[in-house]
Amino acid sequence: MSFLRTTRTFSTLRCTATRKFTTTRLLALKVDSNFISQITAAEKALTNSDEPVKGGPTAKAQSHVGQELSAAIVSDITAGEKVITNSDEPVQGGPTSVAQSALVGGHVRDVGGEKNTSNSSKILSDLSQNSSAASANANSSAGEHTGKLDSSTLSKITDAEKKLTGQDGAVQGGPTAQAQKHANEPITSQALHDITEGEKKITGGERVKGGPTSTAQSELARSRAN
Question: Taking CA atoms, which of 31, 35, 53, 174 is between 20 and 30 Å from 211?
């Protein structure tokens, strides 16, 4: 009888160990068509356009097709989102939010029904460090006038547009939209012309003192004075 009890106990332990082993899973998420479609859907919600923005989150994600999702890739997608929003803060439910959720969720281990979040903590730490580095870079250049339609200048143009429209959202085809076409490019006469055309769409044909065009011209003048 003692031998039978020992045999049953060993058998039970072996089955339990087998069950725990088979329920252990590690999900390594890759940048595939399904992931990119989610990023694209989140981008469309921001732009109300079926066409992805050049250098935007979808474009950034597509540049990493086939790679395992990482904090560095999420940072690239965040940079793409900034091209659209002109803000250092990711939009709730936007492309960055989607990527972060996929990254953290895709690396959580489930052992016997209990979640081991050590990998998630490391990933969140990496994301925090990348975000801090990006903020530091933004702060270091905040007082510089580059003469380009960078995120700082685009933000000022957007603010000038908001003062004209009284709305938080940029007008389709307006000065912000026209400036975004030339994102990170030098402020050229062509860029200024496009911004002016966008401003006229809002004002009914007149340029306004202190408006989007004047803002861009001021940034260009300050860059030349540096």
Answer: 53
pTM (2 d.p.): 0.42
Sign of CA dihedral 94, 178, 51, 68: negative
**Residue 98: which of 27, 44, 42 has the closest Cα?**
42
Burial of 70 (0-12, 13-18, 19+ CB in 10 A): middle
Task: Name 16's Cβ contacts closer than 8 Å, sequence gap at least 6.
Answer: none
CA 169 – CA 50 distance, rounded (Å): 18
What is the chain's pLDDT, residue by residue, as a tens digit (226 residues)? 544 454 454 444 444 444 443 333 344 588 988 899 999 999 988 888 888 888 899 999 999 988 999 888 999 999 999 888 877 888 888 999 999 888 887 543 333 333 444 444 455 555 555 555 554 454 444 456 788 998 889 889 988 988 888 888 788 889 988 998 888 899 999 999 999 999 998 888 888 888 999 999 988 888 887 6
Task: List, in order, residues 6 or more apart from 104 with CB less than 8 Å away.
Answer: 120, 123, 124
